[in-house]
Amino acid sequence: MRIIITGAGISGLSTYLFLRKHLPPSLSYTIHIYESHRPRPSTTTNSQPHSFETLSASTALVGGGLGVSPNGMRTLYALSPSLHTAVSAQGFPCEKFLFLGENGWTLGVQRTGDNGGYDGPNGREEVCVSSSRHGLWQCLMEAVGEGVVRYRKVVGVDVKGSVKIVRFEDGGEEECDLLVGADGVRSVVRGCLFGGEYGPRYTGASGIGGFINMDLPERVAEHKAMVFTFGGSGFFGYASGGPAEAKNVMWWSTFDTDALPSREDLDPDAIKVEMQKRHANSADPAVRDIMAKAEVESIYPTWVLPDLPHWGENGIVLVGDAAHALSPTTGQGASQALEDAQTLSLLLAETLKRAHDSGAEGMSTAEKEKEAVALSIKLLYEIRAPRIKAIAERGRKMDGGKRKMSKIEEYGMYCFLWLMMHVAILRKLALGDVNAQLYGWSAKAEVEKALKGVESLPS
């Protein structure tokens, strides 16, 4: 079986690793990963942003920061305990989320621990790990190994029977039996499946961020926290971008734009001045200190995707942002990409094993494998799409807290957030049991349940 993965970001690299871990040893296969851009160096300080045209075009532009949620860390542990250790070591385990008002009010404190996740209180607890995106990506890249990722830009896909023909910008072509589109929000592979439909939608907000070499703010160092500040003029967050001793603070903010910014709008100095104006009234001395020292290193429009009717067919499948670009408010982008990779690999491993063990007469090995792939793609969507939809909906409910608002709206938001943090029954009514839904989920259990009633491969 010939497998091609397009995109060498978090989604593509983790899919490669999970496939190598789970595909049955009896299966003869190759896996090639293609990426359009060589990654830029680690973002630490004073780096220059990429041109506007490449901000959303590549999965290997790995600037900016993120949080790997407990469910994401648990997925990494299932992939490789040593990889889990490496990601934890290069990042900063955050035990708490602190939610503040720009006026100085503490709106709430939330533990990030998952109480053992799917395994319950007797399981190993995971917490959120804050990290540079590059740090997480580099850990995955080192696990993949040198020479695996090939830097060629995919520009199109043709389907001839059961064969997928991947076309490259340099004029070359390569055939495969399974094509995994892990090529991000502007996915070429998704375009092959749906044409111009179901493209990314600009949310009306853009994000900026960067890293500063400085002592960790008191709230981060003493409480081992990630801090979120909400105000009438926008949103500001900060955390540690690495181990405490590295003294590397990552920060991020959002700003409204009526239309998608043009390249001419992307002046880091002007954007910094506007950011300082938006948050000039912040009561948090850490926010003021960070803004004084900050250089805008990452500027990125935020995109979401509409719900897709499926995630693949004819041996083509989408994972990660190519299937479901989530609002940054969810804090689940990287973690859901990891869960996609794990779920797809577990499905393929079991269906291909069944295919090879099958005594079905009149079917060649290639035909059996084709049916196994088709079943895996179908079940991936049935397992993952409802979970993604619920996470996206929660994100939409919270996105309003990052937009401009009047003083009345601002204080109304403070009251709403305070109630959500302090009155459990109201929180569950508005958002559901978030921790249980996010952290009490198991790809392995969901795959076993989905395959329980499948006695044989579809004919």
List the helices and strands and how they pair.
Elements lengths: L1 E5 L3 H13 L7 E6 L29 E4 L1 H10 L1 H10 L1 E3 L1 E6 L4 E6 L16 E5 H12 L4 E3 L2 E7 L2 E6 L4 E4 L1 E4 L6 H7 L6 E13 L4 H6 L1 E7 L2 E7 L7 E9 L11 H11 L6 H9 L4 E7 L7 E2 L2 E3 L2 H4 L8 H25 L7 H35 L7 H16 L1 H8 L2 H6 L3 H10 L7
Parallel strand pairs: 1-2, 1-12, 2-8, 5-14, 12-19
Antiparallel strand pairs: 3-7, 4-7, 5-6, 9-10, 10-11, 13-16, 13-17, 14-15, 15-16, 18-19
Helix pairs in contact: 1-4, 1-10, 2-3, 2-10, 3-4, 10-11, 10-15, 11-15, 12-13
Detailed description of the structure:
By secondary structure, the protein is α/β, with parallel strands linked by helices. It has one domain (2-452): FAD/NAD(P)-binding domain (3-Layer(bba) Sandwich). It has 15 helices and 19 strands. The protein has helices at 10-22, 70-79, 81-90, 133-144, 188-194, 218-223, 268-278, 285-293, 321-324, 333-357, 365-399, 407-422, 424-431, 434-439, 443-452, and strands at residues 2-6, 30-35, 65-68, 92-94, 96-101, 106-111, 128-132, 149-151, 154-160, 163-168, 173-176, 178-181, 201-213, 225-231, 234-240, 248-256, 298-304, 312-313, 316-318. It has a seven-stranded mixed beta sheet with strand order 6-5-14-15-16-13-17, sandwiched between helices. The protein has a six-stranded mixed beta sheet with strand order 8-2-1-12-19-18, sandwiched between helices. Strand 15 (234-240) and strand 16 form a beta hairpin. Keywords: FAD, Flavoprotein, Monooxygenase, Oxidoreductase.
